[in-house]
Design a protein that fits this description.
By secondary structure, the protein is of the alpha/beta class. It contains 16 helices and 14 strands. The strands form 2 sheets. It has an 8-stranded mixed β-sheet with strand order 5-4-3-2-1-6-8-7, with helices on both faces. A 6-stranded mixed β-sheet has the order 11-10-9-12-14-13, with helices on both faces. It binds adenosine monophosphate.
Length: 416
């Protein structure tokens, strides 16, 4: 049985082919800069040469088609026929309250993904294009949606409700949804395995720190609270997003600075975060660290704000769970920046958290512990494996049978 995982974004498609033995990757491919100058294809199948070439690709459908052709091309691929693919798993960012677990995608599910276009305008449209492209490329395969919001479906009402008039929740579905769920779920499970405990026995705080950043309280293997909210703008400071903000600031910008609605949206999503704080030129953490090391005070301040926000959330989630067994760092920054990990957890000895300086500096692509041996709270670095997580969830759907999965569509939860 082969499973393909498709992650279709606004200008890229990532494609991974998993083999019949659980977890074995047979091929990976990406198409980047779709519809722009210099569209680039990368493809690598097991036992074949790595391919990199410029291609003429206008949309997601063409990207999925060219990647699947490479999969069966005798020169580049590893399958004899696309019919060897049993299922295609799709990362879909917003599943709202209705698509709250992995689900076989049929016309009704596609309609709901479309319904949530307004809630995730940058993500759900290309995700749906990816599904339709895979339906065309793999007509015999089962299409399965894996939703980034679904892991957070267990967050209780007191944590997902905003203190707004109730009808805004009832009618407009304004609530905390949370994102990066596939990653938080993957690393929380991997951390439990690393610690040698069942997920049910552990309270974890998972910090996904990449271009987008979010932090989740995971109690007993389930999401209890998370920092991203109605949209992926809330919570931690990110590369270009502001995270938590007094909502009155948006009103002030419109009333006193004459900014339009879309200018405010642009400012909060694309010009804030590390980019805004460091003076409008740098959003990549590595550049900001370099600038700080050369004495740039704005860069130092940006890192201070970034790390303080993480620390504040860790304190909040320790209180929400009544204590924590381990704090887990993942994604580009979380996996690669000892500086950020140490800074975010500095001064927390009295809360039982001590990072070991030398362990923290060590590099590895495997899960590892970076806390001091006598630290009651363990601190871990766990590389996120989102594609594997999606493939694993697709397997679970296939094993459970699609009828069970479809039932939940009629049982949308949490309606107050
Ligand atoms: P992601 O969205 O998970 O790909 O993460 C992107 C972020 O990770 C960017 O801010 C990068 O600067 C950061 N990052 C990637 N590699 C490193 C590294 N070796 N050291 C520090 N930050 C890194």
């Amino acid at each position: 049985m082969h499973i393909i995982v498709v992650n279709a974004g606004s200008s890229s498609v990532k494609f991974t082919c998993f083999g019949p033995t659980a977890g074995s990757i047979m091929a990976t491919g990406t198409v980047e800069r779709i519809g722009r100058n210099g569209t680039l294809l990368h493809f690598k199948a097991a036992g074949r040469e790595f391919i990199e070439k410029q291609v003429n690709i206008e949309n997601t459908a063409e990207a999925v088609a060219i990647l699947s052709r490479h999969l069966v091309d005798p020169q580049t691929g590893c399958l004899n026929s696309l019919e060897e693919v049993h299922a295609v798993g799709h990362r879909v960012v917003h599943g709202g309250e209705k698509l709250n677990q992995p689900m076989v995608v049929d016309a009704a599910v596609k309609e709901i993904i479309r319904e949530y276009f307004d809630l995730a305008p940058l993500h759900n449209p290309p995700n749906l294009e990816g599904i339709e492209a895979a339906e065309a490329a793999f007509p015999k395969a089962i299409q399965v949606g894996i939703f980034d919001t679904a892991f957070h479906n267990t967050i209780p009402a007191h944590a997902f409700m905003y203190a707004l008039p109730l009808n805004l929740y009832r009618e407009d579905k304004i609530r905390r949804y949370g994102f990066h769920g596939i990653s938080h779920q993957n690393v929380s499970r991997a951390a439990s395995e690393f610690l040698g405990h069942a997920p049910e026995e552990l309270n974890l705080i998972t910090c996904h720190l990449g271009n987008g950043c979010s932090i989740t309280a995971v109690r007993g293997g389930r999401s209890l609270d998370t920092s991203m909210g109605f949209t992926p703008l809330e919570g931690l400071v990110m590369g270009t997003r502001c995270g938590d903000l007094d909502p009155a600031i948006a009103l002030y910008l419109m009333e006193h600075k004459g900014l339009t609605l879309s200018q405010v949206g642009d400012l909060l999503n694309k010009k804030s975060g590390l980019l805004g704080l460091s003076g409008g030129k740098l959003s990549d953490l590595r550049d900001i660290v370099d600038a700080m090391e050369q004495g740039d005070d704005r860069a130092r301040n940006a890192l201070d704000v970034f790390c303080y926000r993480i620390k504040k959330y860790i304190g909040a989630y320790m209180a929400a769970m009544g204590g924590v067994d381990a704090i887990v760092f993942t994604a580009g920054i979380g996996e690669n920046s000892p500086l950020i990990r140490e800074k975010a957890l500095s001064g927390l000895r009295r809360l039982g958290i001590t990072v070991d300086h030398d362990r923290n500096q060590a590099r590895s692509s495997k899960p590892r512990e970076i806390s001091a041996p006598d630290s009651p709270v363990k601190v871990l670095v766990v590389p996120t494996r989102e594609e594997r997580e999606i493939a694993g969830q697709v397997m679970a759907v296939l094993e459970a049978g699609s009828s069970k999965m479809r039932k939940s569509l009629t049982n949308a939860p949490f309606i107050l």
